[in-house]
Amino acid sequence: MHLSRRDFLHFSGVGLGGLLWRKESSPQKTGMGMLYDTSKCVGCRACQMACKNWNKLPGESNDREGIYESPLDLSADTWTLIKLAEHGDAWSFSNYQCMHCAEASCVSVCPTGAAAHNGEFVVIDQEWCIGCGYCVQACPFNVPHRSEETGTARKCTFCNDRVANGDQPACASACPTGALTWGQRDELLVKAKERVDALRISGFADAHLYGESELGGLGRLSVLTLPLEAYGLPQSPRSATANVAVQWLSGLVTAAVVAVVPFWLLHRREAVAQRHAGSSGGREQ
Amino acid sequence: MMTWEWPLAVYLWIAGIAGGAYFAGFLMSHFGKGRYQLLPRIAMFLGVPLILLGSLLLVVDLGQQLRAWHLFFRAQPPRLILLFSSPMSIGGWILLAYALLGIVMIALWWVQSFDPAELRLSVLSGLALVIRPLAPATTALSWVALVLAALVITYTGVLLSATNQALWAGLLLPALFVASAISTGMALLLLVTVTGFGRVLDLLFGGEGEPIPKQVVRSMSRASLGVGIVELVVLVGFVVWLAAFSTPAAATAVGVLLTGPMSLLFWGGVVVLGLVIPLAFELAHATTNREYALGAAFMLPSLVLLGGFLLRLVVLLGGQVQG
């Protein structure tokens, strides 16, 4: 919501009211989207490399040895990452990137409007971001990170520059097995549900779909073969600003309580004590 | 790796002190029927620089400091920007409004406490001429400032709450920061009145610079006790709620404070030094008629201020340990 000067003056009067009555909208995600199917992923990390190449992201080093994951986590310079998900003896690969939520917490908390729904995707405007780090704290999937180099928050853009030219995101076009597919989200949804059913029949009892309705629908759908905990994804992700009106109230009500409990009561006691002192001949105290 | 480092804790602390001191000072003065008139003035006189210093810390903590103005203006097309879903956007405007109003009010009080003929410096008397017509609005402005002060201290809590960090995201963090802010604000006022600084400020606002009466200090100490008790109750509520009634992630997060890497600062600093010791002394002081030794009168508010800082620090850093 961008306000003109007149709007601002108008709203400043009813600002708090507007805040209290504001309702979280629940747009259902439409348009293009990504589908990640862990049962087709061979963990080759072509998506990781393609992402780094296209977005000109530098490599990162870490000093851990003997593990498959590298880098260890998403960062300001790593926007797509393959990790290993484990559940008892069972394991699967797992691709992490921005979920492009319909109700995106980063968009809600961004104080400048730099993080915004750019058409179908969530994009952080690198020319406008001030690097406050609020989106980093707000994201339920720990996706955006602040770059030391640029001073801004950076994350996956779904390669909006490629998509705008009719191409698909670099990760999807590099994927050799069709584990990452780009397409109309509603078509991907049908495909994903069929795949989950097929996996269940062929012995993956825990197979399920993630992203259909979470946070108004995620732009990225995932077909997962292990229980959700194995992937470190939240069962019911919440918007960072879901309770913000109540949180404002919580502080203001406390201020009101403190105004009454020590200050008003203290004054009452002192007033009574003074009257008492006055009637008994002005004794000390 | 933490995104929000200790300078932000300093900001949360001093913005709380600034807003809390005015909130407390105004209420003392309002309910006290003029006996404590100096308190809101002291609060504003010290609060505005604190708010400005805090805002500076916020800007320094940005990744792109020179773009700080993006918080208020859009360039294409030029317009003001206020995003209601973002506490930081609202907070930026609140801080700006509070600092500007504070400067106007300090000027108003100062102008009213001197005779125009006394103002020898021509710049200052010019300023006095400009500001004097606003004088009838002083009372109304002082109420506006009260609301803004409440918003400033609430904002410091909501800022952290509107995130997905389990320690911050509940409903009670703003309540805790508000209680702590008023408590530390009261401590600042006490510290100023028991040291000689209050007399200097009294002179500045046209008073005689007389010592603050013992009775005033006694009342302030009692009010401070009341605020401290509210803060203790809210802190217990905050911890118990997260540990027992919220999500498993929240229980883990609060464990960082209770038994984890922050536990020494939390129990030793926030609870014992910042709350239990000052409350015990203030309780003893309120129930007996003994006066404080000067050392205690100086130490207790200092401990409350220290405890307030450590609270911001352990909550800010502890909340990011998981992430």
Describe the protein's architecture and organization:
The complex is a heterodimer of chains A (285) and B (323). With 285 residues, chain A is of the alpha+beta class. Chain A has a single domain (5-231), classed as Alpha-Beta Plaits, CATH 3.30.70.20. Chain A is built from 8 helices and 10 strands. Chain A has helices at 5-21, 46-54, 105-109, 134-138, 160-163, 170-174, 185-201, 244-279, and strands at 32-37, 81-87, 90-96, 115-118, 121-124, 145-146, 153-154, 180-184, 208-210, 220-224. Chain A has a 4-stranded mixed β-sheet with strand order 8-1-10-9. Chain A has a two-stranded antiparallel sheet with strand order 2-3. In chain A, strands 4-5 form a two-stranded antiparallel sheet. In chain A, strand 6 and strand 7 (153-154) form a beta hairpin. Residues 1-26 and 281-285 of chain A have low confidence and may be disordered. By secondary structure, chain B is an all-alpha fold. Chain B has a single domain, classed as Formate dehydrogenase/DMSO reductase fold (Up-down Bundle). Helix content of chain B is 72%, strand content 1%. Chain B has 11 helices and 2 strands, in the order H-H-E-E-H-H-H-H-H-H-H-H-H. Chain B has helices spanning 6-31, 38-61, 87-112, 122-131, 138-161, 173-194, 197-204, 214-245, 248-258, 263-287, 294-318; strands at 73-74, 79-80. Chain B has a two-stranded antiparallel ribbon with strand order 1-2. In chain B, a hairpin with a 4-residue loop joins strand 1 (73-74) and strand 2 (79-80). In chain B, helix 3 runs antiparallel to helix 5 and helix 8 (214-245) runs antiparallel to helix 10. Chain B is flat and about 65 Å long. Chain B starts with 5 loop residues before the first helix and ends in a 5-residue tail after the last helix. The relative contact order of chain B is 0.13. The model of chain B has no long low-confidence stretch (mean pLDDT 91). The interface between A and B is large, with 67 and 67 residues.
